[in-house]
Amino acid sequence: MTDPVQVIQLIFAAKNFCEGAIKFFDAEESINDKIISSEYNSAVRLMRQAQKINDKELQKNVLSNVIANFNKAIVLEKNHRLLMSYLGLITCYHYIGENQVAQQILSEVGNVELELPFFEKHNQITGRVIGYGIAGAVAVVVPMVGLIAGPGIVESSVEEQQKEIDEKTKAFEKLKNEILNLKI
Fold it and tell me: Contact 136/153 with Cβ under 8 angstroms?
């Protein structure tokens, strides 16, 4: 039989480790997200500026920079911002009269798929379980040490996460379909 004190120590150690790892990955993801979104944000800002320019030649030059930024964003972005990057690129080409290019880019949108994080994709419990305090840590750690866990916390978290995944997927597909139904 396992010593209860050791099990409790293991639970607290696992909880502290998981909380630290989650903070680290959240901070890293936030930094990466800012870097990645900079191309998209820059393109959107330039596009707004281009709308205010009356000189058609200057406007076309600014839009060529917008196109370059949206192309970079397409390489870096995923999910909704990827779709919005495609939409921005399509809009720019349409605005400068390159409708054939815009149509070709529009056809690429059909190949864009929603990219879920690893844990969501594989229906695993993520860091939100830790938010339930000790009960969450027990639900995660106890199965690891071969003891019996109370399934209630784990099951409800998985159900909540599946609902969120379904909502993300539905919103993504709706945006994708709206872009695909554009008439160029």
Answer: yes
- Identify the residue whose tokens are 């800002």: 45
Residue-wise pLDDT tens digits, 10-59:
666 666 666 666 666 566 556 667 777 888 999 999 999 999 999 999 99
Q: What CA–CA distances, in Å, run from 41 to 33, 49, 58, 115, 175?
A: 11, 13, 21, 20, 19
Specify the pTM.
0.67
What domain count does the chain have? Answer: 1
Give whole-number Cα distances, 84 to 41, 125, 172, in Å: 11, 29, 11
Q: How many CB atoms lie within 10 A of CB 175?
A: 17
Q: Which residue has the tokens 């994708």?
A: 176
Tell me which residue range forms the domain holding 114. Answer: 4-180
CB atoms within 10 A of CB 139: 21
Residue, of 172 and 118, whose pLDDT is higher: 172
Q: How far apart are CA 37 and CA 56, in angstroms?
A: 28
Maximum C-alpha span of the chain: 81
Residue 66 has pLDDT above 90, yes or no: yes
The whole-chain average pLDDT of the chain stands at 78
